[in-house]
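Memo to structure team: turn this sequence into structure tokens by end of day. - J.P.
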Amino acid sequence: MNKSKVKFFLTKNKEHIRYKLIKGNRLITIIFLHGFMSDLTGKKIKSLSRISTKLNISFLAFEYTGHGKSSGIISNYGINDWINQSKEIIENIVKTPNIILIGSSMGAWIASCLIPKIKKKIKGFMGIAAAPDFTKDIMWNNFSKKTKSMINKGNIYYLPNSYNTSYPISKNLIEGGKSNLILKKKITCNFPVRLFHGLEDKTVPISFSIKLSKTLKSKDTILYFQKNGDHSLSKKEDLKKIQEELIRLVQNAF
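Reply from structure team:
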């Protein structure tokens, strides 16, 4: 097992994407896609990378443009950009024939959009507090006419969140979301689907994971509702359950 290395990947659009790669000796890679305004320093990445080391399998996580130490300003990008970047970095960096996709919050939406593009490699999918279509169903549909007009004119609307900060909502974010809505679609999955959601999630209702379970058509789908889990699902007991399920997915992939 090689030690974790943090490097930068240069996309075809000359964007610098910071990524963390652990190389294992087995023929599978865990790929983690983080949420909106997150980065490589989160507890879930640390927890899941430890499992990959324990199992001697590869692990990849990266920061989309406008996030963490990757290049760009977040308001200049949208879901479509981050989907394309994710596909490009996976195709160029992942060398194993098999992968397990894990998406947290917005990352679960991005991961779901990637499924048709890389389906043959996927041996398992895990959504953590999945937030598919959130730019429409949580944001745009609940904005006032004044806020919508402000965004449509190219201004940034700062939406307060439960972390005592705010989300910068741009026209790029909203428009990128519109072109990648998935909850009314059906995506065939010939692999296990596991969805975790906290019952105390104040950011994304559990209905989003329930709807996603109907979009991702798999013969092997399990939803886990964490009794005291919030949106981050980063408490010790939450991470333990996620780790245990990941180990099962890896074992079943061989």
